[in-house]
Structures are given as C-alpha cells and as structure tokens.
Amino acid sequence: MIGCHFGRFFQVTVAGGSYQDGLTAVLQGIPPGMKLTEQEVYGDLLLRKPGADELSSPRKEPDLPVIYTGLNAADTVEGAGNKNHTNGTPLSILIPNLDRHFIHIKQYQDTNRTPRPGHASYASFQKYGPNDDAIGAGLFSGRYTSTIVGSGYVAKKVLQQCGISVFSYIKEMAGVRCGEMDSAAILDYTNRYKTMRHDLDPFYQEVYVKGRVTPEMRFLEKMKVFAEIEGQIDEIRGKAPQMSADAIKDKYGVHPVVNCPDIAVSDEMVDVCNKITKTGDSSGGIVEVVVTGVPAGLGEPVFDKLDGELGRMLGIGAVKGVEVGAGFAVKDMTGIQSNDAMHSENGKVVFDSNQAGGITGGLSTGQNIVARLAVKPTPTIDKPQHTIDKYTNENRDLAAITRRDPTIVGRIWPVAENYTAMVILDALFAYYGYEAMKNRG
Prior knowledge:
Elements: E1 5-6, E2 11-16, E3 22-28, H1 38-45, E4 66-69, E5 91-96, H2 102-111, H3 121-128, H4 145-161, E6 165-173, E7 176-177, H5 183-200, H6 202-209, H7 219-230, H8 233-237, H9 245-252, H10 263-278, E8 285-292, H11 306-310, E9 319-324, H12 335-338, E10 342-345, E11 348-351, E12 359-360, E13 363-364, E14 369-375, E15 385-388, E16 395-398, H13 409-440
Helix pairs in contact: 1-4, 4-13
C-alpha cells in the first residue's frame, strides 16, 4: 500500500487499522530539544475519540498513545535536564487498540459481504480483493485519523514555538451556521473548550493526572498498565467527573458538547442534529480552521501551492470539499469585491479584507489563513438501504445500523486542525531555508 506518507521536510508515515493491534505514526523532521509527553498528545487525541458525548457513537476506544522512539530516555549528561526531550531522531507514536472484542469483529464478519453505502468497503474490495482489511474498515475507518491528530499535535507544538497558532471549530452543523467572529475570540474559546474536555475526560484524569502512566516508565511497564486498563474501560469511564450542562457553561464559558464559539448557536446545532438522528438519519456540517502568525511568503509555486496543500485535507475521511478564504462564494463576487485591497499604516501593510484566506499565488500574505472543510453526513445510518453482495454482485438489502455517530463534524475539527498544522510546518521548514539563503546575499 502506498499513500500513507506525508511531507517533504516534516514527514509522517502512518500504519495500522481499526481492528489490527493498533495504529502507528512515525514522524521525521522534529527539531531536538522540545519536551514532549504522552499526556499532552492524548490531550488532543481525546478530542476526536468516540463515546464522549451524545453526538458520537458509543464505541469505547481510549486512544491512549505511547511515544516509542524519538525522546531521550535520560539526561544526556548528569543534570542536563533534557530527559524526555526530542533528540532529532524519528519520533514514533503507537496507539494500541484497547477496545477490540470478538463480538464486534463477528458483527463485521456478518455484514462484510454487503458493503455499506457511503463507505469505502466496495471500492477497497475491488482494489485489494478478498484479503482487504474489512474488519472495522482498516485504514479506511475514521479511527486512522488518530494518527493525524497525534502527529499534528507535535507539529502544532513546534509551530507555537515559532509564534504560529492553529485552531479549529465547528462553523456549521445540520444546517445551523455560526456567524462571523473575531479570530482572537475564537482561539480563546477553543482553548477553554479543550480545557473543559481535559478536565472531564476520565482517562486523562485517571491515567495521566493521577500518574498511572508516567514518562519515566519503560515501554513494557506501560504495556502492562494498558493491559490492565483494557479490562477496566467501563470502570474508568464510570469515574468521569460529572457536571451539568449549565455548570460547564458557567465554569468554562463553553458549550458542553459542541466546539462552536456561539453557545446559543451550539444549542440549536445539537437540537436540530438530534431531531435528524431520531429519524434514523445523520447530518453533516462545516469545520473552519484558522492559522495566525504566519509570515508572508510561505508556500511554493505551481504544484505545491499552499492552498493546494491545504486541499489535501480531502484525504480526511468524510471530507468532501475544502475551500480557502471566500472559496466557492467568489463565483458571486465582482473583482472589486473579491480583491483584498491593501494600504500602509506606519510602514506596515494592512489588508482591507481577507477574501483570499491569507493565500495568493499559492503563497501566504501574512494575513490569517482560513480554510473550511465540508463534512458529509455519517454514512452509517439507522435506515434500511439497498446494496449488493460484493462476491456475487447480487442485490441485497442492508439492515439498519444503530451503533453509529449521529454526525462526524464534532470529531473532524481536531483532525482538520492538526492536519493543517502538518501542512504549515512542512512549508515553514522550506521557508526558513529560503530566508537563510536569501539573507546570505
């Protein structure tokens, strides 16, 4: 299989599947000297995992990561203080599958002859044949996005050291859209939303905050604990800190379920989504990603334009469209409306608008980069559908499926955020190289 590799200077290779022993991401290009812990990586992983709220499926995948290589096991010299710091070698993140039970595998075996409409199961069978990793959809499962989130978190941390912030939120869900807001206010909201999720996630608290798994432990010690945790998933989930929706809104100033910076709109999103779900159907939406602090000139011409690289987020499962800036809305504009006029204020270039989303000619302008992803409705629905037997091509009826995500939008935004960070960091390495060579003259 090819197609599981990303990047030129910041490189990521992923492997595994939803019902294999786990998933793996190997990262190259991480600079040395950055402290990194599994707790902070999990802090982003928990944002996309299922079973966290009423808008995600009841699956119980903890998504606990193990950093297997790329960190110093001890101080390089006594008192150096660089234990658990990146050392410049490839960094590998393992995400074992801890909720893999035969009863679920049997469910897939019973239905694998009849591909689910909207899923990759028919096309992947045509490509890979009878040995296609069809149990849980393998790398075509949404579970593989955990590798993107883990890798992108590391990229995001490097970017933060360079003054660049990447954040994302739900712009639209089930046809309910959030209005325009200041990017600083959105960033503040998303940070508070993440804090809330960390505080209320039982695995974050029980495994990391209480020190059940620590950076000082060796790999085999961690695996022993993970083996114990697999048998305690329900018990740990039962320890989740309990707060009412109103208490969450009062304490954190965020919606308890939806990462949308307008709480009233979030309430409406959930209400409309639940109404659709009760009919057995599903809904989609739009995720918006914002990048601040990017220098002008980031990106490459022709085949590697920065907006084209962001378009690679079509590779995220369930994403069917990516637009930058005004996107498809430019078709209804005139030139004077779509052009971002500029002027100088105290020697600094200021743009009057940002219809281009911070990118022209494939290069960053120095404005905020803004991209939006169209997320399709969850294809697994509680309605009967027509399909075929993929071995005989005979017509079949597919029964309704109840174990599902009512919408995937709430699990896509952390993937989009961290995928964007990977794209920006890869381009930033090239930018720094050009600047260094340019300044030599």
